[in-house]
């Protein structure tokens, strides 16, 4: 079990505006989920969230937008936000998560101070058409290749509990291994009543074994991060994820769902005798 845990916080800087049909995502306008929707979060609000995350020990701060991919307007907004955040919280590693992206777009983000790009494969290539029809799995994979091409740190993972088979899970992890991500976010499906997806929930023991499988499949990844769905999936057993190979968590709220109070997670780590990582590494 790793003694140093990397903390990351995510900021939904554009919410609920996506036109894609990903069946697991409440940010799609198609499903009319009861979530907060806005095109651009005020810069001052983003700054406050970044400072709060930093003060709670987070090293990573991820700027997330809800769309298939980057366009000129979104790219400009993310770059502007990145530059503003460097003025108030230069200690944070800025991460962008803005969907599919070209090499040219990623280079612009890098110039603006973005250090890493998060784009998840979500699931296996074979299962992907069952959960999304408006864009292909290949586009996601290509974006990850683009991230590596421009020299940004690649963060890529997926979601468990979408109705996929164990073979699909292994296939996704093997595809991730080909891409050599530095960090692998593991998400567990959090159902919203507006969504059509109705898979059978995973058992805690099964979810823990999937963390172990991820770590064993990607032994060279610096971080296995348990992200969305952690609280709902593991409940009072969240402390067990570290024994199975996780060495990173998202603290604070997620995109459209609330997480635990940051202090609660910090107290959990202290009780377990785990330290908060103070250096980013790669």
Secondary structure elements and pairings:
Elements: E1 4-14, H1 43-55, E2 60-65, H2 72-88, E3 93-97, H3 103-111, E4 116-118, H4 128-131, H5 137-150, E5 153-155, E6 158-160, H6 166-179, E7 183-188, H7 204-217, E8 223-226, H8 230-234, E9 248-250, H9 262-271, E10 275-276
Parallel strand pairs: 1-2, 1-9, 1-10, 2-3, 3-4, 4-5, 6-7, 7-8, 8-9
The CATH homologous superfamily name equals Aldolase class I
Shape: globular
Segments where pLDDT lies below 50 for 5+ residues? none
- What's the rounded overall pLDDT mean? 88
CATH class equals Alpha Beta
Radius of gyration, in Å, reads: 17 Å
Count of separate DSSP helical elements: 9
Task: Summarize the model shown.
With 282 residues, the protein is of the alpha/beta class. 35% of the residues lie in helices and 16% in strands.
Structural write-up:
It is a single chain. It contains nine helices and ten strands. The chain has helices at 43-55, 72-88, 103-111, 128-131, 137-150, 166-179, 204-217, 230-234, 262-271; strands spanning 4-14, 60-65, 93-97, 116-118, 153-155, 158-160, 183-188, 223-226, 248-250, 275-276. Strands 1, 2, 3, 4, 5, 6, 7, 8, 9 and 10 form a ten-stranded parallel beta sheet that branches. Helix 7 (204-217) links the parallel strand 7 (183-188) and strand 8 (223-226). Helix 1 packs across helix 2 and helix 6 (166-179) runs parallel beside helix 7 (204-217). The longest helix is centred in the first third of the chain and has 17 residues, at 72-88. The radius of gyration is 17 Å and the shape is globular.
